[in-house]
């Protein structure tokens, strides 16, 4: 009775129902017995556009405020020179003059403080007299932070899910003192640390310090940046009775000729706290309703839900895509690690892996919207550096898609746009949106394939190759990082591009184009293998060194060119390549390496191995607030990297690894529980999305799969690998069983059709 009354109360106040709570519960929350005292361990809130981190700095309660569009967009000084082209780089390699290339490509990235993501501001509330913190948590179902103090003081805060506003309420406090603090953009430069990992001092940007102005119960801070850019931070608060205070904050970003409402305008027209909470929680209720999982491993289940929470906090249409730190830029007086930029040689790609299967296609579209929006910048870069038609994308870019430099083997790699093309392919396959296929997916593939055709040649053996090739980030930034033969990394991406370009052209009945792309696909050599059927880095370089980037096994995952389902030959390559990966060892792996390995293990149908490596990620490479910290935080030998720069891609790769254990559909059929440990007797998931726009639910009880539900969003044919010895169809609506085979069943669906298979227990 009390439980029902609780849900009734939550339903009235926040629009929460018992069914909603059943999917994500208090056991998944971030819970602390004291407030974190570091920004990178803080309580995270966000909505893709703005974010806040709540922590304790000295005696004060601190909110680190951020906006995803806060960027210093000055050109990278000394990089874009007319002679700096792909052809020129090849000439310098032949002359053994690679120092000149490093001066153009890598040196500016380390030398110059910008372009870079920049921090916003901070709020501090004097909390010294409130006593010790008794509890601090993020309720991830409500995307709300709650902090309690010994004297009865309480903070409740949320970043609104669909408005550019952050809200806070403080209760049990009579003397309320709040300050708005600006980042230190001016002053003597701290030279004790720097570089791309530690981050340069903010004063190196050369800004004239903006002013914080107070007018009554409101602060406004305006900061001018480079090239006419400026931003405004506004906070307003008011008392509600003797000891309750409510406030709201906003950040507005202003680039020349791109007018937007000022932050002070946004905070002046704000709706009340409780009314805002209703619409905020309505968005999150819908988000959590999209899919759910239940695992017997509490650590993995909680980490998975925390990753889903972070995905919901950082991915939105209309907002920039997920960068290295997204809406949680470092609040330490420095620029963020690696300038907080968009790394397209792994980081952005991994960040969107879990969106498709988790049934969050609206959020994944934000990534592709950004790529389409920046096409003019990508084409300009392609014409400048490659002197070519078609499209390629810089491996390291600003908010507007402009190259930032770095190790050019990867930051100027010729196959970056190929890896990005996979996300267009996945969006099409998981949505079956033909309009998206025709207007966005195939046009991207066509431009990428055009670029690659023009920048490859047929060698003496009649095989197509790049003039110089690389494999992130093997041999770092040395001249030996370039190969005169295709690396398996570049090869897998080029094979994928032309194979899928042919597939999509055929889907659109573009027969001649499909035949052309298929012809080029047939010109590529097989993958470079050792005598023991292990994938190499390149024909001349075996896998012989521990490395954080599993670039040589891209063909296994994520591209799925080498598949367990293809039979013994591919299975041998997968098993032997992963065995060698582990034999060489994890000395120089990062957290995201372990997270990626989870998906690789799952593709090898190794559930025990997948669970083990994902648990290692969750317990050794994450900070207390679940942020991926790159290095081994236990310092127990899991990696020689023991540092802690926070980046998000490892978090989201972890979530994708869990999904690969529960559901796979990349091989042309749907397989439930393809890679779970034998001792996972009871495990289930609801409405995970498969390729073909099919929502799948599965339940395993007592070690046997009990039920599988398929719901076709768009209609069409779906193949299911049967997990039962015998089964019966419990119910079906708008679905016809077309074929029954020993291991597979084929179902023809009408739009919205549903079929439920039950275990026959024989």
From TrEMBL:
Pfam families: Glyco_hydro_95_C, Glyco_hydro_95_cat. GO terms for molecular function: alpha-L-fucosidase activity. Residues 664-752 form the Alpha fucosidase A-like C-terminal domain. Keywords: Signal. SUPFAM superfamilies: Six-hairpin glycosidases (SSF48208). Residues 1-19 form the signal peptide. PANTHER family: ALPHA-L-FUCOSIDASE 2 (PTHR31084). This is Uncharacterized protein. It comes from Runella aurantiaca. The lineage of its organism: Bacteria, Pseudomonadati, Bacteroidota, Cytophagia, Cytophagales.
């Amino acid at each position: 009775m009390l439980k029902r009354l609780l849900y009734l109360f939550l339903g009235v106040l926040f629009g929460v129902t018992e069914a909603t709570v059943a999917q994500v519960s208090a056991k998944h929350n971030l819970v602390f017995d004291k407030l974190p005292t570091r920004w990178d361990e803080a309580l995270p809130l966000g909505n893709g556009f703005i974010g806040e981190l709540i922590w304790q700095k000295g005696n004060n309660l601190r909110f680190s405020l951020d906006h995803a569009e806060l960027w210093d967009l000055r050109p990278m000084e000394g990089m874009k020179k007319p002679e700096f082209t792909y052809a020129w780089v090849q000439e310098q390699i032949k002359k053994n003059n690679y120092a000149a290339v490093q001066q153009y490509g890598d040196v500016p990235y380390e030398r110059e403080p910008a372009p870079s993501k920049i921090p916003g501001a901070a709020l501090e509330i004097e909390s010294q007299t409130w006593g010790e913190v008794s509890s601090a948590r993020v309720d991830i179902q409500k995307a709300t932070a709650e902090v309690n103090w010994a004297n009865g003081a309480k903070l409740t805060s949320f970043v609104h899910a669909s408005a550019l506003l952050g809200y806070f309420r403080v209760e049990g406090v009579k003397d309320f003192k709040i300050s708005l603090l600006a980042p230190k953009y001016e002053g003597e430069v701290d030279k004790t640390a720097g570089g791309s990992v530690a981050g340069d001092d903010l004063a190196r940007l050369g800004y004239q310090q903006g002013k914080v102005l107070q007018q009554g119960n409101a602060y406004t801070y305006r900061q001018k940046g480079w090239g006419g850019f400026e931003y405004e931070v506004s906070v307003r608060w008011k008392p509600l009775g003797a000891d309750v205070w409510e406030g709201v904050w906003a950040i507005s970003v202003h680039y020349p000729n791109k007018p937007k409402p000022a932050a002070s305008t946004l905070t002046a027209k704000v709706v009340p706290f409780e009314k805002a909470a209703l619409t905020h929680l309505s968005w999150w209720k819908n988000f959590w309703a999209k899919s759910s999982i239940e695992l017997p491993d509490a650590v993995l289940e909680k980490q998975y839900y925390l990753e889903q929470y972070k995905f919901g906090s950082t991915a939105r249409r209309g907002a920039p895509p997920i960068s290295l730190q997204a809406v949680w830029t470092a609040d330490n007086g420095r620029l963020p690690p690696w300038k907080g930029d968009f790394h397209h040689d792994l980081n952005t790609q991994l960040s969107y892996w879990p969106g498709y299967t988790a049934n969050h296609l609206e959020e994944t579209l934000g990534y592709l919207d950004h790529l389409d929006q920046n096409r003019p910048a990508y084409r300009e870069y392609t014409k400048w550096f490659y002197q070519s038609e078609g499209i390629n994308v810089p491996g390291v870019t600003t908010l507007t898609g402009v190259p930032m430099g770095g190790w050019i083997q990867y930051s100027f790699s010729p196959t970056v746009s190929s890896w990005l093309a996979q996300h267009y392919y996945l969006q099409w396959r998981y949505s079956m949106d033909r309009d998206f296929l025709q207007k966005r997916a195939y046009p991207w593939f066509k431009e990428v394939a055009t670029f690659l055709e023009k920048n490859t040649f047929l060698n003496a053996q009649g095989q197509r190759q790049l003039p110089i090739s690389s494999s992130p980030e093997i041999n770092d930034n040395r001249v030996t990082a370039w190969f005169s033969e295709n690396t398996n990394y570049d090869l897998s991406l080029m094979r994928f591009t032309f194979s899928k370009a042919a597939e999509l052209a055929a889907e659109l009945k573009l027969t001649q184009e499909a035949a052309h792309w298929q012809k080029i696909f047939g010109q590529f050599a097989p993958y470079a293998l050792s005598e023991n059927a292990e994938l190499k880095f390149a024909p001349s370089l075996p896998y012989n060194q521990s490395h954080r980037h599993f670039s040589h096994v891209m063909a296994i995952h994520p591209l799925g060119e080498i598949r367990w389902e293809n039979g013994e030959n591919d299975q041998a390559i997968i098993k032997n390549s992963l065995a060698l990966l582990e034999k060489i060892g994890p000395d120089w792996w990062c957290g995201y390496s372990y997270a990626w390995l989870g998906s690789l293990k799952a593709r090898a149908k190794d559930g025990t191995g997948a669970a083990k490596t994902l648990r290692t990620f969750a317990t050794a490479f994450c900070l207390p607030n679940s942020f991926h910290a790159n290095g081994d935080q236990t310092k127990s030998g899991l990696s020689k990297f023991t540092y802690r720069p926070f980046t998000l891609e490892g978090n989201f790769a972890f979530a994708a690894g869990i999904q690969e254990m529960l559901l796979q559909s990349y091989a042309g059929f749907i397989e439930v529980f393809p890679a779970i440990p034998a001792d996972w007797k009871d495990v289930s998931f609801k409405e995970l999305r498969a390729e073909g726009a099919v929502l799948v639910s599965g339940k395993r009880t007592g070690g046997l799969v009990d039920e599988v539900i398929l719901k076709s969003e768009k209609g069409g044919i779906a193949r299911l690998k049967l997990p039962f010895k015998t089964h019966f169809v419990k119910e079906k609506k708008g679905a016809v069983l077309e074929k029954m085979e020993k291991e597979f069943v084929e179902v023809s669906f009408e739009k919205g059709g549903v079929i439920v298979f039950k275990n026959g227990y024989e």
